[in-house]
Amino acid sequence: MLIVDAANVVGSRPDGWWRDRPGAAARLVERVTRAVDTGALEEPVTIVLEGSARSGAPTTTGPVCVVHAPASGDDAVVKLVRAHGGTVVTADRALRERVRTAGGTSVGPSWLLERLPDPPGTTRTTERGPQT
Question: Structural domains in the chain?
Answer without folding.
Answer: 2-118 (3.40.50)
